[in-house]
Amino acid sequence: MFFERHEGGERAILVHLDGQDSEAREDPQEFQELALSAGADAVAFLSVPSNRLTAKYLIGSGKVEELRDQVKLLEADLVIFNYVLTPSQERNLERVFECRVLDRTGLILDIFAQRARTHEGKLQVELAQLDHMSTRLVRGWTHLERQKGGIGLRGPGETQLETDRRLLRVRIRQIKQKLEKVRSQREQARRGRKRADIPSVSLVGYTNAGKSTLFNALTRSEVYAADQLFATLDPTLRRLELDDLGPVVLADTVGFIRHLPHKLVEAFRATLEESSNSDLLLHVIDAHEPERMAQIEQVMAVLGEIGADELPVLEVYNKLDLLEGVEPQIQRNAEGKPQRVWLSARDGRGLPLLEQAIAELLGHDLFVGTLHLPQQLARLRAQFFALGVVQSEGHAEDGSSLLAVRLPRVELNRLVSREGLKPLEFIEQHTLQ
């Protein structure tokens, strides 16, 4: 790689820009949590008004001098800005502070680098980091900004900086090719699930809303879950059996955050496509979070970027265990369809309600009725029982079975077709009115 990975625990001064514009303003508490998640030891927090931004240092020269004194006094290794710095601003500030300077994008990229576990996740993070650093290479190579010399190398040639940029371009192209292969493999797997008529459900939401905890509770898995930002980076898929519906594929995905860097959205497009190709999105919301409405807006903005804002969404208000006087419930819209589910993934209260709501939304094409099956269709009768879709059974005078069944229509069509019968004709002829 072209950059160093630090072990964390570095003494950092946090600089928050207190903006007047609510759209541009960042959350100072979230900023501190990000720094903590990256492993920084915050030794000072400085809030700076953002109404007088400068091109050279971003902040005013007086604040720059104040920060320089703080860096020396506290022996800080790092200054982190809760804002996006230009490459020249980073360089100028580093010259004054004589320590490393990191902006919000670089901080989030560092957290992603620590969290990535799978080969695909590491590739996506590396792509985002290289793309981010390609404009900042001059910082690391200023001492090599000259023509190379030596036997066979004298005369016109490229500078070390140009060489490094070329190597970066080559590496970025290689990673994109590998991620394109991952994308095609994911698409192939999705097509396989579509052919098998297995619906897919994706968990989306703001980072640290409790998606992985909910995923584990629903699927009885042990996906890594922690009370920290971006605990999950790599998508995980599990099969989930639902009453009245059958199997669905549940996907746990990366969390979103306010002003998620576009480089990350682009790099994680292969992962985020898992959400954009789902039949239903479960938007997990931290019900205990005071800023939850702003977080909901940010999630919807990112969903719009990946083309998933038109998909059916079920809002899941999580962390009910932190609220008083609120019981698990399903809230419905004017048409009677589930719109919100209130639950606690930690203690399991409300999980059956969520499963019921998912089954209702995905099972809109359920077949519910009584089938009249003659004795020659005994094998089909046995398959209905094997699937557990029979509500009750009676018998006609001729000994044929009267089965009250409830199952997805696609599943019924599949079973009937397997017996060599035409689904539409079978349903018309064998359904009791």
Automatic annotation (TrEMBL):
Transmembrane segments: none
Coiled coil spans: 165-192
Keyword ATP-binding: no
Principal place of residence: cytoplasm
Listed InterPro entries: EFG_III/V, G_HFLX_dom, GTP-bd, GTP-bd_M, GTPase_HflX, GTPase_HflX_N, GTPase_HflX_N_sf, P-loop_NTPase
Binding site for GTP: 205-212, 230-234, 252-255, 318-321, 344-346
Keywords: Coiled coil, Cytoplasm, GTP-binding, Magnesium, Metal-binding, Nucleotide-binding
Family, similarity comment: Belongs to the TRAFAC class OBG-HflX-like GTPase superfamily. HflX GTPase family.
Designated name of the protein: GTPase HflX
Organism: Pseudomonas taeanensis MS-3
Organism ancestry: Bacteria, Pseudomonadati, Pseudomonadota, Gammaproteobacteria, Pseudomonadales
